Amino acid sequence: MLYSINSTHDATLKSWVTSANDPNSDFPIQNLPFGVFTRPNGIDAVGVAIGDQILSISACHSAGLFEGPAADAAKRCGGSTLHQLIALGRKHWSALRIQISRLLRDDTMVGRKAQKLAETLLVPMTEVRLSRPIYVGDYTDFYTSVFHATNIGLMMRPDNPLLPNYKHVPIGYHGRASSIVMSGTPVHRPFGQTKGDNDPVPVFGPCKRLDYELEVGFYIGQKSALGSRIAIEDAEDHLFGLCIVNDWSARDVQRWEYQPLGPFLAKSFATSLSPWVVSMEALAPFRCPAFARPDGDPQPLPYLSSPENEATGGIDLTLEVFIASAQMRAQGVAPLRLSQSSLKHLYWTPAQLLTHHTSNGCNMRIGDMFATGTVSGPDKDMRGSLLELTWGGKEPLTLPTGEVRRFLEDGDEVIMHGFCQRPGFRRIGLGECRGTIVNG
User: Fold this and answer.
1) Domain limits, the chain
2) Which of 104, 136, 229, 309 has its C-alpha lying 20 to 30 A from 256's C-alpha?
3) DSSP alpha helices (H): ranges in 2-78?
């Protein structure tokens, strides 16, 4: 069941943390994403982003600011990950979110009490390091943008861009969880085996067609048993929250190795995640209908269909990609926006992805993640990868410094942003996901 809009989404709410009231802030009081931060002394703690500050959950609990289920949830926030909190379930997540909202408001008694304790409760983001909030056990990457799939297919199979199964079944593959890294971690240019069209034999060496993929990842918040299936009506109960994902891709390696079993070393060298986990509840005002399938497209099979999913299974989440070359940064040139797309363009909804993933009895564990695959829209400036934007390198991009890019070069930094906005509600953001290419 989807979350309902409640008091925490009220656009008129103001926080005594003044930076949260900036209309351009990713983290107003209406958002309240969870994360883990590391203090200079090396101690990890669970916190909530509010403006340019982090609210320490354990400090609030020690000050007696929580009660009932929220207090029980706060007790589980003393470690170095969100796993213990997530394990409590949806009732406790929501209770904690509601009480955090109240204690950060500028018009409540508990808010005024908390404000007096601000020096104890708050930590400036600039003074800590954001750590991995959830250790992903299993990671699945899907292929849910029909626009991305069509673009790739047109390059490879101009006469038959979409394979027959694409519009019937969500396509995915099992990714490598061990190489998931946090935003800001340098990405080493991978080595691999490649073969050009005119080469007699393959060669081994550094990737020459390194790319990014703009994606969103969903964290599993409720486990399922091996042999069981998650019905589409129950799928959203199993989702805790989401983050930005950059699925770095070695296109030349991928081209040589992907048949007959799909992605392998071209994808497993690094996957970057943004550090804040925006809860599914925070997204309640920004739900939208599932993708409107054109006339002639098959309708989802019954196990992938429900009235609620059709009406509100989509998410109107805007995603942007920027690039800043080493030369741009040295000259003080602002990052160049390459594309802007939206999660509403995905052919399959998050609930459909999770339902299909477990339809064979595959079990889910708390902290597992699945990603959407590249989020591309119908227009050229909505393409979520360089492979699409440069059409396989045939249409290179020119940066403000005059540099030309077909694919990523050493020193290039890729920055991804995500945000939701809708009239009558406060804009909320996912923060950013950064990664800089370094020589492998």
Assistant:
1) 7-131, 139-315+340-384
2) 136
3) 57-62, 69-75
The highest-level CATH class for domain 7-131 is mainly beta
Beta strand 187-188 with 428-438: parallel, antiparallel or unpaired? parallel
Q: Across residues 1-30, what is the average pLDDT?
A: 97
Per-residue pLDDT band at 1 (split at 50, 70, 90): confident
Catalytic (active site) residue 148:
yes
pLDDT (tens digit, 9 = 90+) per residue, 410-427?
Answer: 999 999 999 999 999 999
pLDDT in tens, 64-95: 999 999 999 999 998 899 999 999 999 999 99
Active-site option among 148, 238, 356, 357: 148
Q: The tokens 């406060």 sit on which residue?
A: 426
Helix (H) or strand (E) holding 83: helix 83-87
Q: Rounded distance, CA 219 to CA 18, Å?
A: 30
Identical fold at 7-131 and 139-315+340-384? Answer: no
Q: What tokens appear for 436 in the block?
A: 């800089």
Q: What gap in Å lies between CA 437 and CA 440, rounded to an integer?
A: 9
Q: Give strand ranges (E) for 221-264.
A: 239-246, 249-250
